[in-house]
Amino acid sequence: MKMEEVAVVGAGQTVFGFDRKETFEELVFEAATAALSDAGGSIGDIDNIVTVSNDFWDGRTISSMSVMSAAGSWNKDISTVEGDGMFGAVYGMMRTLSGSFDATLVVAHVKGSEGRMNLITNGMFDPIYQRPLGIDATISAALQARCYMERTGAGEEDFARVSVKNHGNGLRNPHAHLGMEITIDDVMRSRKISDPLKLYDCSPVSDGAAAIVLSNRRGLKRFRQKPAWIRGAAYCSDSYTLGYRDLADPRALRAAAQKAYRMAGIANPLKELDAAEVYDAYSYMELMWYEGLGLAAEGKGAELLRSGATETGGELPVNPSGGTLSAHPVLVAGLVRLIEAVLQVRGDAGRRQVPGAKRALAHGINGPCGQCHAVMIVEA
Amino acid sequence: MTKDKKNPNELLYITSGEMYQPYRYTLSSLSGRFLTEIKEKKKFLGVKCPECGRVYVPPRAVCGRCYARMNEMVQVSDEGEVVACAIVEFGFVDPSTGIERPVPYGTAFIRLDGADTALSHFLDCVDREKLKVGARVRAVFEEERTGSIMDIKHFEVID
Ligand SMILES: [Zn+2]
């Protein structure tokens, strides 16, 4: 199926960090107005709004409603995605494709510093069988990392190499929370969090917001920014219960990626993509996602990384922005992956620009250990 | 665990226990100044929209109508008018303060003179004759103030 045409015509993101002094309402206003100004439009050019929020992270129910003014939804149609921002982008795309709206603003926010990450992520698990065991995002990730090591032979040094690459890339991204020049040794010696994961294998808890403006062909005349066309978009979910899943097999990602590639007419993603932004909440995930995205053969994620192909200057730079390891505003991070992909194909990525990038991939995840995956391909 | 009364062998529920999920909510400069003004001076500040001129009490960052960022804080009165009121007969323990207010008590939305929006708080009155939309009220403050909305004890009806 060839897609109807929808483009990202504006993008905005705050600087990500811990303990930002602004409320999330202020952060949403900052990101949304930045996206509108990037698009060369104003709130009056927007037909409907999609917000992304989560009640546990926001510490209030129906959290979407508390940002409606900041998202510019006075007298407008507004609805919400509770999950990663990439799914907000997918939903915004659908609304734009529906024919009811020509231009859609998607905003996502989180103030990770307001709540307790381990308690909030414990809250995503089943209350009868799993929550009482104290499992959280990091503990479940450690279980998955171990499964992946067993299946592929990847080692902790391989994970450390992801951390070194992405934190290094983060130094060139003015929005990043935690760009760092570190060595494999630094990662290996960092504090154990949940074996085999150490501090520098784990993304930071960040505050911030991001927003995009989506438009169909009809809406384009309202904006001045060059469009980044969405050429492929797909998502797929695996089982909610971790024990019902093969944790080391990113089968949902494989399904989503293959579908997105078919829509975009991509046969060999490693060769045909110019940049990729993937959701590396923990270092090992990037290696698994290489496999799920078909960039590496099964079990060969670490090999691809060691080959240098995904480094800056490699065949397909992955996370030139520094990825989620360098800034992890939960819920916002997937939308940031898309924004970074858009900036790459527009040639607007500043010091993190992949020279001549024309086609880029963005990836977001939802649920524990990447239960659900969304993939988008954007093209200048 | 809860058991079925008719069939004691059937397990029905598992409770969450005393769930612990604490937050520290960001005030931002606007709310920080609003609460500080009450604590230090027993006075109210609102924030004024640069486009439509509406004064919001309590302050928020964005005027939704104009889609404008608000920064200018202006003083409003500690007296105002009831725009909505209720007499609460069935109270509950506020989980964030642990306070269970003795019932009945009056609760209201109050538009302070100089403000365009209403602030919610308690009233000192449960008299249906006096507690009316349009009733004039004045803020009464706690002696010991900590920088919270509870630094306002209640509003007293002054008609
Ligand atoms: Zn206004």
What does this structure look like?
The complex is a heterodimer of chains A (380) and B (159). By secondary structure, chain A is an alpha/beta fold. Chain A has a domain at 6-116 and 205-222: Thiolase/Chalcone synthase (Peroxisomal Thiolase, Chain A, domain 1, 3-Layer(aba) Sandwich). Chain A is built from 13 helices and 11 strands. Chain B has one helix at 28-41; strands at 2-3, 11-13, 44-48, 55-56, 62-63, 68-69, 72-76, 79-88, 105-112, 119-123, 136-141, 152-157. Chain B is globular and about 65 Å long. In chain B, strand 5 and strand 6 (68-69) form a beta hairpin. In chain B, 25% of the residues are buried. Chain B starts with a strand and ends with a strand. A 5-stranded antiparallel β-sheet of chain B has the order 10-9-8-11-12, with no helix packed on it. Chain B has a 3-stranded antiparallel β-sheet with strand order 4-3-7, with helices on one face. Chain B has one domain (29-157). Chain B is built from 1 helix and 12 strands; from the N terminus they run E-E-H-E-E-E-E-E-E-E-E-E-E. The chains are: A alpha/beta (380), B mainly beta (159). The A-B interface holds A 20-26, 29, 33, 43, 56, 59, 68-70, 72-74, 111, 113-116, 119-120, 123, 127-128 and B 14, 16, 20-29, 31, 60-65, 67, 69. The structure holds zinc ion. Zinc ion is lined by residues 49, 51-52, 54, 63, 65-66, 68 of chain B.
The helix-strand sequence of chain A is EHEHEHEHHHHEEEEHHEHHHHEE
Query: Could you give me the name of the CATH homologous superfamily of the domain at 6-116 and 205-222 in chain A?
Result: Thiolase/Chalcone synthase
**What is the overall shape of chain A?**
globular
Q: Give the uncertain stretches of chain A in residue-range form.
A: none
